[in-house]
Amino acid sequence: MIDKSLIDYWYEKLKKEAEESGYFLNPDEEFTKSLIEGLLINQERFGYFACPCRLASGNKEEDLDIICPCDYRDQDINDYGNCYCGLYVSYDVYTGKKQIKSIPERRNLKKKKREITISTLKLSLPVWRCKICGYLCAREEPPEICPICKAKKERFERFI
Amino acid sequence: MADKNKKVVLYALSTCGWCRKTKNLLSQLSINYQCFDVDLLKGEEREKILQELKKYNANLSFPTLVIDDQIVIIGYDEEKIKKELT
Ligand code: SF4
User: Fold this and answer.
1) Which residues in chain B have Cβ-Cβ distances shorter than 8 Å to A104?
2) Chain centroid to CA B78
3) Does domain A118-158 have CATH number 3.40.50.150?
4) Smallest Cα distance from A16 to chain B, Å
5) Phi/psi of residue A101, each to 5°?
6) Which of A57, A143, B18, B32 could be cross-linked to B76 through a Cys-Cys bond (beta carbons 3.0 to 4.6 Å apart)?
7) Which atom of ligand 1 is nearest to the CA of A82?
8) CB-ligand 1 contact for A87 (6 Å cutoff)
């Protein structure tokens, strides 16, 4: 069992972080807290915030794309108004103009490596892309923490 | 009235919000169902249930509700569940 005060703590923390970077937690507090409890249970099980609505393997490398916030959050919010679990929602849902719903799974278990076509451009530095929020930066290595969404270095990919 | 003669199997995760909503709805409708919380299963048992689930939902997503081994409802779909079971 996860302590209620710990769930409350993470609820406030995630809510604040979301709102500071232009995201919104689901305003249905009870539902949202049950998902946060799921995240905390997975944190205990695996050592990371594996998505509560997906079956994690327990192997961090394999699960990297579904560590919350997952690689699919932004696209799902755009297309449907909420992430797969319903933890993060669009502004319309947040303000009650739209309802959340159960949406199709976007993750393909047989992950396709995205083709990176290296252009003929001569760049003085590689460009790194945050897979969570799309932030781009040109430097030798990705930053330790994404300055926009706070994702860790391991969630960056080489973009160009 | 709920149709109690149907075989209803729910593949779920104990941590998932939509799975919880599905469980609540089934209880509310007084449906008897068998539930597998796959994240709580280990080793061989988990493999066995996943193989079973794969037949109905190759994507292995949750919740997946299977009625009489034929009707498959993927995700939380209140309307469809009510339509099939009441
Ligand atoms: S963003 Fe939503 S769907 Fe993605 S891991 Fe977090 S809770 Fe799950």
Assistant:
1) 74-75
2) 13
3) no
4) 21
5) -145, 165
6) B18
7) 2
8) yes
CATH number of A4-109: 3.90.460.10
Domain boundaries, chain A: 4-109, 118-158
Which of B10, B16, B49 should we substitute to test contact with A (largest number of A Cβ atoms within 10 Å)? B16
Chain B: closest CA distance from residue A52 (Å)? 5
Q: Across the interface, do B15 and A37 touch by the CB < 8 Å criterion?
A: yes
Name every residue whose Cβ is closer than 8 Å to that of residue A24 and which is 6 or more positions away in sequence.
A18, A88, A89, A90, A91, A93, A94
Q: Which atom of ligand 1 is nearest to the CA of A54?
A: 8
Alpha helices in A47-146 (DSSP H): 60-63, 73-80, 91-94
Q: Which CATH number fits domain B8-85: 3.40.30.10, 3.20.20.10, 3.30.420.10, 1.10.150.240?
A: 3.40.30.10
With beta carbons less than 8 A apart as the criterion, state whether B18 and A86 touch.
yes
| ipTM rounded to 2 decimals | 0.92
Cβ–Cβ gap B13/A109 under 8 Å: no
Tokens 């997975």 belong to A42
